[in-house]
Amino acid sequence: MRGLGLWLAVALLGSAQATAVLEGRTLRFEDGPTLVWQRSFPAALGDLSGPVEAGGLTYLGVGPAVYAFTPAGEVAGRADLPGQVTSLDAGSGSLRVSTQEAGYVERFTLTRQDGGLGVAERVVPPPDPAVTGWLAAAADLVPQKEVARASAADLTNPFLALREARLASAQGDLYASLSAVRRALNTTLPFPAWVMLAARLDAAGFPSAADLALEHARRDAAERGFDPELPVGRAALSAYGNPSAYAGTLLNQNRLTRAEAWMRYLRELHPRFEGGPALYERYAAVLATQGRAGEAEEWRQFARSLRGGTLYNLGLEGTRALRDAARLSALSLLLALLAALLTLTARAWRAQGEDTREYGGRFVAWGRRPLSRARRLTVAYASAGERLTLVLLSAALFTALGGWQWSNLVSSGLQAPALNTGTSGGGWVNAQLARLNLRPGPDTSLLSGLNAQLDGDLSVAREHYTRALPSPCALNNLGVIAQARGDEPQAREQYRAALAARPDLSAAAFNLGLSPSTPELTFQRTYRPDQPRLCYPDQRSLTRAMTGDLSATLMRNLREPLSLVTAAPGNSVRLGWALLGALALVAGLAFTLLLPRAASEARLGRPPAYRLLALLLPGAALLGGAWGSVLLLTWAASLAALLPLSGLVRFPELLDLSQPGVRLGLLGALGLSYLLNTLAFVTAEIRFARQARREAQPHT
């Protein structure tokens, strides 16, 4: 009542002369020589912008927020913005606000709404804790003895109300505590702040209020265009209130009932968050220990269902398995190649020494007669079939190393922050995407169109989608644009075309009134029931936009070999040198196919060292036939897969050698390769002995 009386007095006495003045970090409202009210803002809250007076209110930018004050000094509303406010302008008849964050600028129009301020444009909270956690930090700056006064002065900050509730609860005033909690929930917040508030409510012993705050978070995120189909990185989720960490804390405390509420929130809004599979498995294991095996299996099945749309359906973190598979393949091929070259060297050693003796020996000959020495390379003593096998092995090694490089590039690309915020569009996402070297093509056009559509620029979105055709996803989103224009027949025609081109496209099926069952559509039916479903790029589409497929990476390596040893995100320089070495090896071995064989099979014979290596390295002495390569690769792959037992290498996402069945299978394959090789070796020795005996017999 006192504030209302002061406001009426100011109005009756002629508030036209009253002005707001910012002195340092203190906002003063003066009516001539009379100070009506003042408010100071700590430096920790960020820069101040303004003040600007419009519509009977005084607006002041404080950090990433704009406050509206009445002539009596009361907070009439607050607008939460996605960056530090840099300017306020009311000259055009509307209040325009500029914000800046990480090198980009956004502009918004503030509107008056019931209960506070609103923003006409779409506001996407950036994954920046300084922005998303600003309101909670502002409440934490208030000394405890001033909490009640600060909460009464700013009814829009629920974190102050919660602090007041906890103080009242500690004093035994349950009514005042519940009243403050009710006031905290009766505010308007961006969803990250709701999640932070829910965690504090939970910790303070208000579980029902925490559940309501989480529900507010879901609804606000849905209104802002966040969708469960899009992944969320660890950094972004941390900025959004870190619900996964709090769920883990609840599991550590064995508070399973509360953990269930937070796991349900993650499942509904952010199911594809980084680290999700591990947390889902941990929660399922806890449920199983509680005798809830059915629920545990249901959570495991849900985690498996998220693999759709990922690379080779390996899951959200499947690039790690791809990397380990490429590393294992490269190591296996390297072992096979080394074994083959070592065995062929042992067979050619004596003949090569005899042939290079006249030039000073096998090493000196490189200086005296390099061309003649080049014709007597170890590989030149191999048969045409053996040389071809070496070329194929080296080419396969180059491909495997390229696959390793590709998996690194894909992993780095898919972890780009712009692709892991749970939504598309917004100033922060657009600024980050502009820094990525996206490949021109339908997938990049689809992503650009989605960003424009979510930001409300339908004409630009339509242009991008047209360039993305005949993408079924683009067709569906063009149908959404047509439906927004009121052209229902065209929209349904495009939905049908999208579904015909891709029968598993759930967005088009949903828009046609069918009932596909996916986690994303459950969220859509609950929180956006009257809106058509957008189609979002999956991991495969994003991979094509970021790096292309493996063939594109290999072709780029061949066209631009120097780029392999250039430091770049996801590009290992050491791996690049290995790729260059493999490429040179392929070229060198391919050149040897043109050389005549330096010695006959009879002259080479079967020296003792060659026989020993032929026995120890399965398949290395049988490269002239197809089965020799199979035997060599089986031996090399089995040995490479068992190497983690030595501690030298690891393939954590591919092989678990702690499982007895895995070890037994690999040892069995290794033993079988030695058994078959021994039989082949004995057969070859018998055949060689018979041949030598026939040649030793006198001719009649």
UniProtKB/TrEMBL annotation:
<keyword id="KW-0812">Transmembrane</keyword>
<feature type="transmembrane region" description="Helical">
    <location>
        <begin position="575"/>
        <end position="595"/>
    </location>
</feature>
<feature type="signal peptide">
    <location>
        <begin position="1"/>
        <end position="20"/>
    </location>
</feature>
<keyword id="KW-1133">Transmembrane helix</keyword>
<protein>
    <recommendedName>
        <fullName>Tetratricopeptide repeat protein</fullName>
    </recommendedName>
</protein>
<dbReference type="InterPro" id="IPR011990">
    <property type="entry name" value="TPR-like_helical_dom_sf"/>
</dbReference>
<keyword id="KW-0472">Membrane</keyword>
<feature type="transmembrane region" description="Helical">
    <location>
        <begin position="662"/>
        <end position="684"/>
    </location>
</feature>
<keyword id="KW-0732">Signal</keyword>
<feature type="transmembrane region" description="Helical">
    <location>
        <begin position="615"/>
        <end position="642"/>
    </location>
</feature>
